[in-house]
């Protein structure tokens, strides 16, 4: 009898932990990034996270640099609870994505990050949820979504559910902070300060058919720096080997 009860509880717990299966792949793909692109960059961003704000221009420029046939940039939103308005912003992202068929999703993100301070905890401390939604509707109007349509969809159960599913999915990937970066499903020890050139040091070798640079022989007077597994640079005098980055003064 005890064993039977245990099995029933175990099955029930397993079903409760099942993340709802979305009707389409999750995330917001930049500029039609192709599914068969050799490099997939998935970035888990906080809608109101200053570090995500810092990383956003770099990763979009990186996607432009390689093009959608080579690099598929996909942003997943992870509303952090200590940014009180972040879930509302994430919902707004889904609204804009739905209304504009994904065409203005990244412009919405850009405009949100440009107005980050106005949506902070301090700036909205005395504002109600409806007042915050009204502020978001003004931002939505800059990407062609009318205030009435935006506010109506912000109360749509499907928008709410899609936002929750995205959050739960991100948790299932082991993400606990933003921004978090994965290249071809592998976690990369990058941070918001990385430049396009820093990223190219990780991505370029993935696109090369030549043997790995791990056999690089550095000239006399330089030192070998393995800044990522198999990725080698020759540091000149005065340069140090910085983990995950390479040679830097």
Automatic annotation (TrEMBL):
UniProt-listed InterPro entries: DSBA-like_thioredoxin_dom, Thioredoxin-like_sf
- Give the protein name, as stated in the record: DSBA-like thioredoxin domain-containing protein
What domain of life does the native source organism fall in?
Answer: Eukaryota
State the taxonomy lineage: Eukaryota, Metazoa, Spiralia, Lophotrochozoa, Mollusca
Q: Which residues form the DSBA-like thioredoxin domain?
A: 42-192
Signal peptide (UniProt feature, chain positions): 1-17
* Keyword Signal annotated: yes
The alphabetical list of record keywords is: Signal
């Amino acid at each position: 009898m005890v064993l039977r009860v245990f099995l029933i509880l175990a099955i029930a717990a397993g079903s409760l932990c099942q993340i709802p299966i979305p009707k389409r792949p999750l995330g917001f793909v930049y500029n039609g990034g192709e599914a068969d692109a050799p490099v997939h960059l998935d970035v888990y961003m906080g809608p109101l996270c200053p570090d995500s704000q810092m990383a956003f221009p770099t990763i979009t420029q990186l996607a432009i640099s390689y093009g959608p046939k080579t690099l598929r940039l996909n942003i997943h939103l992870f509303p952090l609870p200590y940014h009180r308005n972040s879930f509302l912003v994430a919902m707004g992202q889904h609204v804009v994505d739905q209304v504009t068929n994904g065409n203005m999703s990244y412009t919405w993100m850009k405009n949100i990050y440009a107005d980050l301070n106005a949506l902070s905890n301090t700036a909205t401390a005395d504002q109600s949820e409806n007042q915050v939604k009204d502020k978001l509707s003004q931002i939505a109007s800059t990407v062609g979504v009318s205030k009435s349509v935006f506010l109506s969809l912000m109360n749509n159960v499907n928008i709410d559910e899609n936002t929750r599913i995205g959050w739960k999915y991100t948790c299932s990937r082991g993400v606990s902070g933003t921004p978090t970066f994965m290249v071809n499903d592998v976690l990369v020890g990058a941070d918001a300060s990385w430049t396009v050139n820093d990223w190219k040091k990780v991505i370029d070798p993935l696109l090369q058919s030549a043997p790995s640079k791990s056999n690089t022989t550095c000239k006399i007077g330089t030192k070998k720096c393995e800044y990522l597994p198999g990725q080698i640079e020759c540091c000149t005098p005065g340069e140090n080997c910085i983990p995950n980055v390479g040679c830097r003064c």
